[in-house]
User: What shape does this take?
Amino acid sequence: MMNELLKDELKTVNERESEGFKISTLQEADWAMRKLKAMDAQDDGFKATAKADIDETNAWLNRKLTENQASREYFKGLLQDYLYEQRKTDKKFKIDTPHGTVSTRKTPAGLKYEDAVVLKSLHDQGVEQFIRVKQEINKKDLKKAGSIINGKFVLEDGEIIAGVTEKPASESVKYTF
Assistant: This one.
């Protein structure tokens, strides 16, 4: 919760903004920092309020979706039973109504993988040809191995590496409260 002093700080913000205020002393800079801190505290209050509402709304949504899922499974079961009952007399029967269809689809047999277990087994047995390795640039070592010359990145042995350009230094303002 925001304390009363921070609330008072926020009251004068609009007044100063409309005057076209300019900071010209350390005290005025400190005043502006207090305003920023008060706004951050106010934002935290807004976020806490919204989070409580979001959590409550999500709980309601999950409860409603769970209720619908039970009913959904019930009706799907009824439709499936009807489909298979009709398939006893017509092997190609499908339920086809203006509001949807129910049919079956054959899935061919195949393999199911538990990736972590399979990878460990392949490594343990030395069967590396079935393992893909993701390639990525080792930027730290590459940077040490060359330098920018005439706008191009050149390795110590003279090889020019395409796609590497110089990024100029920059400065940003950092606010700490």
Notes: The first strand starts at residue 95 and ends at 97. The helical segments are 4-19, 26-87, 115-125, 139-144. Strands lie at 95-97, 100-102, 146-149, 152-155, 160-161. The longest helix spans residues 26-87.
